[in-house]
Amino acid sequence: MKSPITLLSIAILLSGCSNNSESLSSPDGDLELSFTLTSQGEPSYSAKYKGKPIVNPSLMGFEMKDGENLTDGFHIDSISQSVINEIWAPVWGENDSIVNNCRQMTVYLSRGSIKMDIEFRVFDDGFGFRYIFPEQATKHFTITDEKTQIAMTGDHMAWWIPGDYDTQEYEYTCSRLSEIRSHADDGFMSNVSQYRFSPTGVQTALMLKTDDGLYLNLHEAALVDFPAMHLDLNDSTMVFKSHLTPGPDGTMATFDTPFKTPWRTVTVGENATDILASDLTLNLNDPCALDDVSWIHPTKYMGVWWEMITGVSSWNYTDAENFDLATFDYSKAQPNGRHGANNEKVRRYIDFAAANGFDQLLVEGWNIGWEDWFGKEKDYVFDFITPYPDFDIKALNEYEHSKGIKLMMHHETSAAVDNYDRHMDRAYDLMNKYGYDAVKSGYVGNIIPRGEHHYSQKQVRHYLNAVKKAAEKHIMVNAHEAVRPTGLCRTYPNLIGNESAMGQEFREMSPKHVTILPFTRLKGGPMDFTPGIFKMDIASFAPDSQNKRATIANQLALYVTMYSPLQMAADMPEHYTAYRDAFQFIKDVPVDWKKSIYLDAEPGEYIVAARLDKNSDDWYIGGVTNDEARDYTLAFDFLPAGKKYMATIYSDASDADCFDNPEKYKISEMQVNSDTSTTIHMARGGGFAISLTPEVE
Ligand code: NOJ
Ligand code: CA
Questions:
Q1: Residue 450 contacts residue 495 (beta carbons within 8 Å)
Q2: 13-283: which CATH architecture?
Q3: Which ligand is nearest to the CA of 341?
Q4: Which CATH architecture has domain 502-527+561-567+590-697?
Q5: How much is the pLDDT for 696?
Q6: Is the CATH number 3.40.50.2000 carried by domain 299-500?
Q7: What pLDDT shows up at residue 83?
Q8: From atom 11 of ligand 1, which residue's Cα is the shortest distance away?
Q9: Average pLDDT over residues 362-366
Q10: Helix, strand, coil content of the chain in percent (nearest 5)
């Protein structure tokens, strides 16, 4: 699909190559990137913001199998520069149009018969570069290491999670870069596979703040056909080096020419809100590849889910042991009496979700195999098409459709990826047959086949292939435990969500987590964080589960502060019935936006965001704080001058507290305009949510 609004001007300037350096400035001139080929023929780059270095000279290139090192001995054949200036409209998003304005430079390098180009794009808010291997005599390349460096200019503060090839389900540590090593073992989870490649290895997107008060974010964009990149820090020199996720034979990636790697990116801002507002990752991805996007729609959903997560009911239908899917006879099996996805319960949830305006209802544990899914690393556990005896797939879909909403499919693969690939066509066809148009997939456990990692090249190909195949069948995908997103939702907008971080599932987490995720994980794309938990005293109904550390007002705010076109109301119907007036905000809040403004933020501390509904003139505001209570003065000066709005404010009660009194909130109304400001109390782990409706004059 072509961008509907395009103001594109491309000027190609082919320079001669008499010198070995070339610079490129951002459109506003504040950011300057320099490329240099050293006297040893090593490609390198550096960057300055307003004249001050932000990335020191950093080497580039790859180590190849058979000892061919693409790190030095290069010659510059030519350099070209051009300008991109366009406005494009996302299918869904934080804003209904996005400016893509940057300067581009391609350095055409050769080393004997090998050709490797480096393409740079410099925006006002950061830059990216990628390696391009054009068609050449050598067809096939095998990479054993990527040598790209990102040399920091100091011992910055960092919000980081450990380098792990298989999971991002960690809480973030905030420390100086020099302190990462001393936290090396923090936060490792015992129930997931883990591989920490170095005591100073971290994952992207990595959030940084310099002592000069500049904010930096390191990530990658358009991860296609390549392993995910981690960063390994030399904590004497403060130089990061790319560390690719290896495949089973220890090599990192293979490809045939022509080939382009993903972009390596650095976003920069003087305010923390600049990082939140940056569209750099999306802009570095290709335009939408789908001709017809009419079937893709932002979705608000509920689920027969929280009761399984908290242990109240089970995904499995029986408690059978020594289970073998191929021979097990469910018709003779003794049900365990705790199976969540049963006809009666699903109908009850459908009634509630439909009556409250939701689009879909996720049902997990609907299909056979859950008796044997976890921990045994079996190839064949699920077939993704056979319902349990007490889940009447035909009747439930008909019932759901009669109420004007849809069921959401669930495919837990148990990380048996080849098995999922073998069943994918039939699984998607079943969805088409019964009228499902969205699937939540999952990759819990060690990847089968063994030796592969969640973020290795084969897996990265699998996740995108699953999204592309789904697009052919008009299915939207929300993949959990898949590789962290890198803006591919621009190209494939049926990728409406990912987890790929610690969401609000199994564990108690620090209140600050939600003030960091928008600076890190969300820079690649939306997250299915599953907000909206109202009953915080989980031990009162599920003794084996951990309590959540958030207030109800904080949970409401997340629908605004954590952008996603896919938002769940994750709690159970009875917990919403108990707090109907607060639930109203979840019912009202849109999932698609005309305009978004990050009003105020500091990573790890607080975030305040305002968004304008795509389909009305209503604004919504969300504010969240960490484990510090604060009184926040909110100015409504972003509103159009002269217009009056009725504000409904959902905030923490004065005695609310995420540890001791999480369910206490108050709801008030006030008339506001662009001159109004008001002070709102946020409890520890608290926040506020506001809806603004224009007053009829
Ligand atoms: C992990 C997912 O993140 C969670 O949401 C899901 O319920 C379980 N896997 C079971 O598939
Ligand atoms: Ca998960």
A1: no
A2: Distorted Sandwich (2.70)
A3: 1
A4: Sandwich (2.60)
A5: 87
A6: no
A7: 98
A8: 412
A9: 98
A10: 20, 35, 45
